[in-house]
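Researcher: Please generate the 3D structure of the following complex. Treat every line as part of one assembly.
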Amino acid sequence: MTTPAEMHPLAETYVKELRHAAKKLPRAQRNELIAEIRAHLAEAAPACASQADVLTALERLGEPAGILVEQGGGPAPLARRLGFHEIAAILLLMFGGFLVFVGWLGGVFLLWTSDRWTLRDKLIGTLVVPGGYATAAYALVAVSSVEECSGSSGQMTCTGGPTTLGSIGQIALAVFVFVGPLAAAFYLATRARQQP
Amino acid sequence: MGPGEGSSISQLRRGVLEYCVLALLRGTERYSYEIVHALGQAQGLVTTEGTLYPLLSRLRREELVSTTWRESEAGPPRRYYRLTPSGETRLSTFMGEWGHFRDSVDTLLEGR
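Model: Done. Output below.
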């Protein structure tokens, strides 16, 4: 977006402090705030400015922590209620797969367009578990149809029954597929409430 | 800016500030630093210029202003702000109310 302009060392230190103080902001908001403050300092305190001028400019800007209080709307950001956007995202991620799979994609879209989640949250929401409970239902149907039995009256032969190794893998997969979406939903709900 | 006598005036200031930003953009567009600088020059209006950036970002999220990035002759590109129709409505509503508000407060303060 911008080529970092030449800045006075004191201004550099200030931006570093601000970046540190802004760690908890959603990435987009943080980058935007830092870009704006950088642009401000490039004009108010260019590299060639005297130390006194730079200090005045920084004093006028105020403490980084103070700027963040304004951004967060309060000193200790309280847990926020989930918005419609976030609730819809979580529900669609869990159950949207049953709506011809497109519902889940809608959930992914809402997840990635919300500023209440960080990149990490969004990756977890997408990958645990793709398709949500529709994938679980599909897995259930797939597993139960693996074992096929044929024959009649007393003589039953079954093929494709569970082997020991296979069944351990299946149990692990089943746990992931059934517990994963619920755990991810809880995680996303908690995270969205924490974000300022 | 702790709690105490300063905090009520700072709350009043905070409440009015967004309308001052909207007023600066009436009929013209300005880039972030211009807005912040202009408000910083007004006596007693802004104590810390840095807090204006979160305010600008909120006005943008509420779609009272819209922005475009433009190259500048010197230095990094600048973000220009202009009023949206809903920003204009908000401003003119405030201007109507502010006149009465100011007159009432003045009358009471002057004890007339």
